[in-house]
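Hi both,

Apologies for the delay on this - the queue was longer than expected. I finally got the 2-acetamido-2-deoxy-beta-D-glucopyranose-bound model through. Below you'll find the protein sequence and the ligand SMILES exactly as submitted, and right after that the structure tokens for the full complex including the ligand.
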Amino acid sequence: MVDRDHDRWLFKGDTELGLQGRDASTPAIQRRSSARLWGLVSLLGLVLLVHRLWPGTSIISCAFPGQRGVPVIEVCPQVSAIAPSSHASLVESLDQEYATEEFKLKAYESLGGAVRIPTECYDDLGSPLEDPRWKVHFDFHTYLETRFPRVHSSLRRTKVNTYALVYHWQGSDDSLKPLLLAAHSDVVPVNPATYEDWINPPYSGYFDGEWIWGRGSSDDKPGVIGSLTAIESLLERGFEPTRSVILAFGIDEERGGITGASAIGKYLLETFGEDSISMIVDEGGSGFSDQSGTIFATPAVAEKGYMDVRMDVLTPGGHSSRPPKHTGIGILSNIVTELEAHPHEPELVRGRTYYQGLQCRAKYDKGFPPELRKLVQESQYSDGKLHDLEARLLDFDPTFYAQAGTTQAIDIVGGGVKVNALPEAVWAIANHRIADHSSPSALMDRFASIVLPVAAKHNMSLDAFGEVISADGPAWGQIRLSDAFNTALEPAPVTPTTGSGPYELLSGTILSTLKTNLRTDEFPSSAVVSPSLSLDTKHYWNLTKHIFRYGHRGATDSYNGAHTINEAIRGEGFLEQIRFFTRLILNADETDLLG
Ligand SMILES: *[C@@H]1O[C@H](CO)[C@@H](O)[C@H](O)[C@H]1NC(C)=O
Ligand SMILES: *[C@@H]1O[C@H](CO)[C@@H](O)[C@H](O)[C@H]1NC(C)=O
């Protein structure tokens, strides 16, 4: 446990920094590149009032209402570890059982058996009733039934959209909002060309004494098997929950959950209603990792938005013996060149999740460069320093661009049918992950503002997401911009952190699980909890404000990344995940932090 009163956040070698006497009138937020952007937009785009009514997410929560420059809000506040108290002896005896070789081998084999069922997810899967490729999920259901008999006799299981699973563990007090644990049972396919490169075969589920091998061993079968194992163990001890627990297992998370999680979300909304869940813990991308000897656990509380923009360039056809100076392909290239010449700038915004994470690193990571730490401190009050810091981060943090900005990747291009025919219809699609402080509508405005001069230069009219801007007089052709698959997504509502009961419960549970860990490798037992960003729980947004994407697992518990060869999880890492689920269920059951 990190000393929570350690709020000077200076380490040996750092210079003490006075915090007094700052100018309180300095605007708390200055959105520099935004201002630049809006200048551009208003110049070119007065014509173009593409103001859509997306629900606003641009409210910048300003955590620095400092009076006379004195910080009112503590930086990266930490809570104390929370261990089950009325169930203290239960959790203790379970820990003793979890530490036995017999339990470990059984749990590892539960995961191994799940890995051996290749629940591969494909982008083009059809409806569950028609496409036979779904059927493997029946085998998975049967496997779960045999492996977790108590769960299946005590919990109510509902199959949603045929293959997705919801388990309901009824609590004795219906006035308490249920705890929801979410995971997914599908995996990305294994490329047959890589079979040879696997140390152990991709669907072996083999435990080699340290690692459990195979596709899904990390992403995300531990989420499914870990929570079921925890509940099976609790049932074996006769535990009966006061607060209901719900498990929701998607079947096509790897293509956005359009069949599984979306149907589960709808089912839960119909069954329980809006804002009916106390908190959701979903696998997310993040767990914990070691920074210069301090463990940082980073539950994700924010998610970027999403949008694929399609560009169509439509020009008159004809014989290519008398071509125009620029064909549709040339014009499309011009657009792409302009887009790439004007990428979205990442932006450091006070109070936003990335900035908060940076403050936590600066405050608690002993290896954080001292001069950057100083900048982070000063940036709380000085806009100039905030911008200096922003510039430094491009080098310092390779993830800064992706985390704090809207990314743009032109990923698909098409057009042209014959070498002697002018291409009449040429197109490309750009993929975007939208910064949490921005929105699809800001992206569309900006996109249009970049394409408009290209359209003008080539005597083309522009249809920007339904808003047509004609050239003066007749145009030679048209450039059309649209939402490629109608999948635009606002950044997620940010889950409350500091001062929020669910965040405190989650943080406290993470800390107590680490503190009591059963690892045999002298893993650190204290940690800092720091909020972070990730993707993708959109199907559950209306069920609660308190959505956390967090898998209790260390960065070094994965042998290799997910979605690639040699996916494997360290057995002892998986065991800690089971312990985390156990503690979370018990803590949620006896807490008053969830309301
Ligand atoms: C634009 O193209 C149209 C159709 O080819 C043509 O009539 C018009 O003169 C062109 N305008 C300019 C400014 O080149
Ligand atoms: C969530 O609630 C909002 C506002 O009530 C509504 O517009 C939206 O359609 C809901 N989403 C889902 C997935 O039900």
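Main takeaway for now: The longest helix spans residues 571-590.

I'll put the files on the shared drive as well.

H.
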